[in-house]
Design a protein that fits this description.
mainly alpha
């Protein structure tokens, strides 16, 4: 998110240390509630990093550039899932399985999960900015209304997300398994064909 915001004209995340490869830069991603308390309370099922908060006044097209910045997160997760699947394919083509292949499979599944969940259009997920931009394209007043609702709800806007997660977790797990399994199978087949 921070790099996307900078590319789109906002230096705020960089100035806040969100692009630094140092201990202080890494520490700037830790959110006490989202990175420590919630993961401990949920036994590692839920959590979040400190959100990157760009200054939309620095964007040329604030609504759409914010959506592009938000899309960077799920896009990176999708890219990491594809990269992990390719690594899995290479491992299986080389006859290396076991713990290494399982670890790469978990990495792929985790990134598929993060990409899918981050696209949900509820606070605090990235999908809320994508929905906001889509509504703005239809009629700016719709976006304004949605933004006012998000602002009014604040952190309580995460409550529906929690209930969706609890209610549909089995369905979500099945979808993540299906997408991850398809990626891993396709990568294994492609690498098996290329390296045979």
């Amino acid at each position: 998110h921070a790099k996307a915001a900078e590319i789109l004209g906002d230096p705020t995340p960089r100035l806040a240390g969100r692009l630094e490869w140092s201990w202080s830069g890494l520490a700037s991603h830790i959110h006490l509630l989202g990175s420590v308390i919630v993961p401990l309370a949920s036994m590692g099922l839920l959590g979040m990093a400190m959100p990157v908060v760009p200054n939309i006044n620095n964007f040329r097209h604030p609504v759409y550039d914010l959506a592009k910045t938000a899309l960077a997160g799920p896009a990176v997760n999708a890219g990491l899932a594809l990269t992990g699947a390719a690594g899995f394919g290479i491992l299986t083509a080389a006859g290396i399985g076991g713990l290494a292949a399982k670890a790469v499979g978990v990495f792929v599944s985790l990134n598929v999960l993060l990409a899918m969940v981050n696209l949900v259009p509820l606070y605090p997920m990235d999908g809320k900015h994508l929905l906001s931009a889509a509504l703005h394209a239809v009629h700016p007043g719709l976006r304004t209304g949605l933004d006012k609702l998000y602002d009014a709800l604040g952190i309580l806007g995460a409550v529906p997300l929690f209930f969706l997660f609890v209610t549909f977790r089995e369905s979500l797990v099945l979808k993540v398994d299906a997408v991850s399994g398809a990626l891993l199978a396709a990568a294994s087949a492609a690498c098996g064909f290329l390296f045979s």
